[in-house]
Amino acid sequence: MSSKQPAFVLSHASDIDGSKDMYEMPALNRQLNILAKRYFHVLTLVNACFGAGLYGMTTGAGNSNAYSKPGAIAIAAGDNKTEVYSLNKEKGSVFFDLIIYGVTSGVADERYGKSYMVKVDGKKEFYAGITRTLSLFVYLNDRYIDVNQELADRGQTLRLSDAWIGSTEDQIGAGGFFFINEPSSTSLDATTQTAVRNDGEFTNLDATPFSADVIKPVSTPAPPPVNENAIEIPYGPVSAIPHRPDIRIFKAPDIYPIKGHDISAADGEIDWNTLKKESKARFIYTRVVGWKGYDSSFKSNWQNLKNSQFDRGAYLKYDFCRSPESQLDTAKQYLNNDPAMLPVGILLVHPAGEDRQQLACFEKGGMNGARQNILIFAELVKNHYRKTPIFYGNHNNLSNFLDSRFDSYMIWMGFWGKTSVKLGGSNPWTLWQYSGNEKVPGIGPQTESEVFFGTEEQYQQFRQGNTNIALSAVK
């Protein structure tokens, strides 16, 4: 038995007993352990001979189908003593071919592979779903059995070993990963194929369906049963389920065609020439006042936005130490009533852990008093600027402050780098701040970026500010 650590032998290796062009598996494991501490989920797929030698360095355990819990999972194509194979030179490896087919077709997860329905133009078009880590692993091993049976029937001695799964994060339960199934284009009718290609919602639309026949004639498994009671997910840019505004939807930001940013003095000096030339944003919000008073960048930002192609909006940070009336007076002092500007934003931040003076003011009236004054301020802003304001904050702050009395107002929710949405109530989001560190030429590498929830027509209604358009869209 060799005393050497198990290692990946790289293509330029010349001495199996040497260290040059070798990548020791424990070294990779240590790197994966570091990654696991930085990210909620880390999934590693190891298609390497003797790949299960990666394990043995960690003691994590858990349920890898529990994708709402953090974890770091690795799936190896074989055990620590067996080679892995590609049985058809025109295809990839057995391991990755099966993973791709199992996910894109939905067959790898019988329960959730067809768990939601995507509709185009209000018509039932196709089912999609998710594939969970453990389900994918079980599917892989079941298909390995099929391949081995085909090999045996042909009199071949070659055998695939079982795939292996384990945690790469030490001392923590192994929560799971999941894939979103994206159907191949040939599973959709011609009209839908054209629609989804034009909109760009699906990125996996191939000219021909993927085949998992790694060797002939391995049979294609039957598709999972269709769940006729599946939740209907509207096609395109949406923020909630129709008739269920409490069920929010967060698709990939690229699905939403109308994007923007918000800026303040914290962004430093902005290169407006570069921004106007490079940015594809439709709107930009800029801060007027914060807890420390007037934002020194507002006047310049507001004028530059007026001279740009961007729709401009302004937001005010609610101050718990001042009356609603005095805050409106300050807003009127710096922010003229421009009919072309977007609805005014009202930033809500709970002062606990943020500002002692603001916290002392907040505690005098408590949460009920704060909510009442915020509602008064919102009504004053609406009456003066003639547009329904939009409440801005992260999902925890909005859950703290907003109740059903706020449903007539729009929501601008900051939600990124978190584990779950805790937004209470039944008001869907109108703007979603999906990132706080996007690299935007002209602004910088840590720009706050937003998407609008809906279509061009709905965006024009948002600009007019007559109603809570996101809530109206799903009622």
From TrEMBL:
Any one Pfam family match given in the protein's UniProt record, by short name: Glyco_hydro_25
SUPFAM superfamilies: (Trans)glycosidases (SSF51445)
PROSITE patterns: GLYCOSYL_HYDROL_F25_2
Transmembrane segments: none
Alphabetized PANTHER family for the sequence: LYSOZYME (PTHR34135:SF2)
Recorded family membership: Belongs to the glycosyl hydrolase 25 family.
Protein name as annotated: GH25 family lysozyme
